[in-house]
Structures are given as structure tokens and as C-alpha cells.
Amino acid sequence: MDAGPMESAASPGGVAAAGGWRPLVRTVLLLALVGLCGAGLFAAPFTAARTPGFWLTLVGMIGAGCLGVCLAGGRGASFRELFLDQALQWAGAAAAVWAILWLAERRGLAPEAQGPMLVLLIAYSVYLSGIRHAGSLIAVALLMAATAAGAVLLERVVLLAAGLAAVLALAAFFARPFLAGLRRAGRPEPPPGATGGTA
Predict the structure, then answer these.
(1) Are 33 and 65 a contacting pair, CB within 8 Å?
(2) Would you call 79 exposed, middle or buried from its count of C-beta atoms within 10 A (0-12, 13-18, 19+)?
């Protein structure tokens, strides 16, 4: 007699196949968020990065990444609820970024100061997403804030080395559930008669 859908879903292989993709997607998106933040911070002194289009595009990409992390978190919220929440939040963040750049252009704020300021604003938005929907985003937000502060206090070379070390540490931390799922999924299941006694 064939196993029913409930029995197959409850098997270890079914669980790994059903939920094994979530840690991978979450890890990739979290690392992408950190990379986007670093790109904005390091590109800030250049002319192209001073335009609102660069930072607004960056905000949109980070907002989409946060939405993906929230959806992969699997906390039970519907897609419509998460989408509306994140769309409103990141629309506000985009408006704040545009206002800062508008004021900076008229008050002559140095590009070196714009980058850390805008990254701190983005980190705060990521933090808000984390405390409401996905706790892993809190670690990303704290890393973004620390990177922005380090950009002011440290030299670029030291900041780059510290940023790479932080990214690797974050990758190792968030990849643990996914790697554990791969190890469990790769183990061959024992035959039915291997564990039981002979009839």
C-alpha cells in the first residue's frame, strides 16, 4: 500500500525537500544586502553616486531583498500583508534619502559624509524589517551601522578588511541551517528491514 501524503510529508526527506531551500535563499539575500550596503558606502565619494537615482535604486534593491528575507522566514504572514508593509516602509526610506540628498546639494554636504549618513538610514529601515518580520535582518542592520561608523573612523583599507571578515562571519553563521539540511538530506535512508527484527 502506497504511503499517504501526510506520511510522505512527515518523512525526513520530505521535510528537507520542502524547507531546505529557505535557509539558502535567506543566506543569499542577507549577503546580497550587506554587499549592496558596502557598494553604496564605497561608491559614495564618486560623482555618479551623488545623484538621487543611485541611492534610490539602492534603496529599492535593499527593500526587495528585505521582502524576500521576510517571505523566506516563514513566519506565517501572507504575501499581501508583507508586501504592503515593506512597500510603505521603504517608500518612506526612499523619501528620506531623497530629502537628505536634496539638503546636501544645497548646503554643500561632503560626499564622504553623505555615504555613512545614508547607510545609517538604510540600516535603520532594515532593522525595522527585522524586529517585525525576520530577526536575521537585525544582525545585517547592526553590521551596516557598524560599517558606516567605521567608514568615518577608520581608513578605507582597514574598513575593507573588516567588512570582508564580517561578511564571511555572517555567511558562516547564516549558512549553518542550510548546510545541516544538506547533510541530513544526503544521508541514505536505511532499508525497511534493517532496523526491525526478523518476522
Answers:
(1) yes
(2) exposed
Task: Please report, for residues 49, 72, 159, the alpha-carbon distance to residue 75 in angstroms, rounded to integers and kept in the order given.
Answer: 36, 8, 35
Amino acid (one-letter) located at 37 = C
> Could you give the CA distance from residue 77 to residue 195 in angstroms, rounded to a whole number?
41
Per-residue pLDDT tens listing for the chain (199 residues): 444 444 444 444 443 444 566 667 767 777 777 777 767 666 665 555 567 888 888 889 888 888 888 887 656 678 888 889 899 999 999 999 998 888 888 877 766 677 778 888 888 998 988 888 777 788 888 887 877 776 666 655 555 566 666 766 766 676 666 666 666 655 555 555 555 545 4
- Calpha distance 93→120 (Å, rounded): 11
Distance CA 129, CA 135 (A): 8
Rounded Cα gap, residues 22 and 8, in angstroms = 20
Q: How far apart are CA 74 and CA 145, in angstroms?
A: 26
Cell numbers 517571505 label which residue?
71
Query: What is the SS3 assignment for 20-63?
Result: CHHHHHHHHHHHHHHHHHHHHHHHCCCHHHHCHHHHHHHHHHHH
